Every structure is written in C-alpha cells, then in structure tokens.
TrEMBL record:
Annotated ABC transporter domain residues: 5-234
Coiled-coil residue spans: none
GO MF annotation list: ATP binding
SMART domains: AAA (SM00382)
Database matches in SUPFAM superfamilies: P-loop containing nucleoside triphosphate hydrolases
Entries under Pfam families matching the protein: ABC_tran
InterPro entries given in the database record: AAA+_ATPase, ABC_transporter-like_ATP-bd, ABC_transporter-like_CS, ABC_transporter_ATP-binding, P-loop_NTPase
The species this protein was found in: Roseovarius phycicola
Protein name stated in the entry: ABC transporter ATP-binding protein
Keywords: ATP-binding, Nucleotide-binding, Transport
Amino acid sequence: MTAIVEVKDLRKTYAGGFEALKGVSVTIQAGEILALLGPNGAGKTTLISTLCGITQPSSGSAIVGGHDIQNDFREARRLIGLVPQEVALEPFEKVINTVRFSRGLFGKPRNDALIERILRQLTLWDKRDAQIKELSGGMKRRVLIAKALCHEPRVLFLDEPTAGVDVELRRDMWQIVEELRQDGVTIILTTHYIEEAEAIADRVAVINGGKILLVEEKAALMKQLGRKVLRIDLTTAVQAVPEALAVYDLELSADGTSLTYTYDTRAERTGITRLLQDLAGAGLSLRDIQTKESSLEEIFVDLVKEGAA
C-alpha cells in the first residue's frame, strides 16, 4: 500500500501554553479506513484541524498526497474533504447552491450530475431547493457531508459525523463510506460509537493527552476481543493461590474470596474443565462462576488509563 497521509512529530501549543498535540506521528495508507478514538479533549479535533489547514502546527510536518500541508497548502487541501462537528451553514441559502458553491471553492468545474448523485445518496434531492433554515438537524448534517464530497476528495475526514443524529442517517453514512472505500478514498473518522469502529475500520488509533497511544490493525485488536475472563467466587476466603494451581496464572482478589482466570475462546482448549477439577482437588469450594468477554471499549478505556498514568 502507498501512504497518502504522513504525520511526523506534529505539535500544537496554543497561546495560553496548552499543548494540544505532543509529537503525533502516524502514517495512513491510501484506501484504508482509520478510526481515531479518544476521550473529549484528547486532541482528535486539533489533529484533524491541523491536517486540514484550519489550525497551524507549532512544529513537525505532515504530507497529504505528496503535498506538505504548510508549504503546499492549496494542493494538499484540494485532496481533503472535511465533515466537521459543528453545523455552520448559511441559513437562507438553498441546499443545492450551498453544495455547488463548495465545489467551486476548490476550483472544480460545474458538475450537476455529480451533485445530483451525492444529494440522492444522502436523501437530499427532494430538499435541493429548500433553504437551510427549513431543514432538521439531521438534514443539515447531511448537507455538511454533501459539501465535503462535492469536490471529489481522496482523503475524507469525518469528525464525529454521526454524533446526535438519527439511526437512518448513521446507516446512510456508513453505506456511503463503504462506497467511497471501494472508490479508493482514504477515510479518517473520529467517533464515540466504538461499535462503528469495530464494524468499518481497517485500523484503530487511540489518542489521549495529545499523544498517539496505539495504532493497530483491527484484526489484531480482535484477537484481544477473543479473550474471556472467568471469575470464580469461593465459599471460603483463602490467603493465597494454592501452588497446585500456579500453572493457571490465577489472580486472587484482595479479600481472598474470588479467583480470576483469563483464557482464549478460540483456543483448541480453554482449560476450564481441568481447572475446575484441580480447584476441587486443592480443596476449594465454589460458590459461583461468572464469565465476561472483553470489548473494544474496555480495551480503549484501559489504554487511555495507561496513557494518563
């Protein structure tokens, strides 16, 4: 794969001294979907704003499609589409004119067939002559997406594109994302809906405190999702794990009343049957057994905690 976005040691410090980006480095391949996850204030929007030329970096570099975002801004920005969090639209303008105008800003010739196709994809064609102020919040969000797509970008940034919108728009949005992927468009999205990252992303990046904590293939993360935890509640507290059970790498709770066993659900053998037999052989009596499977959300939360430590 060819890299289309290359970020090296990117930093952003605001006038008040707040350091929003602390040496971010990441390479994004052409045609992939990268999900950028992080809590509020992690630096997601600052990173996107910097790559899109809305915010100037304090230091470091970034290349989009071979063009430096500072020294060759116009060519770099021509390749980028952005769907921002904020809905900022001219309230008295018609939908179709709003989208046409955005295409013109990038020096693209008029293309009514393309505009119609995009508006139809987003269920906006019937609203093409309506003023923006007449639209619902969800429809306004669709207009933002249409504006971002109208100049045929090769890199599309989606900053919380489905936050607070209806289920139908979310479904339409991901259908469009899949169609864009098939056309070779690279997509970077931030989302609080972690299940969406699981469903559509090729890779997942976790950012917190202005730092990238992890960039991982989704398939590799899914291996962690295959892990399950078995909690064994004992009828009587113990002081320590019996030596006969050392092979299972059990964790004893602080109060000595439960044991935790981690295993891989996709392994040929989980070892649970033998463990239960050995527990009885060690003289331990069980009160209850519970299983719990890791989720991407839990992995994300753990990473953020580790990064903040």
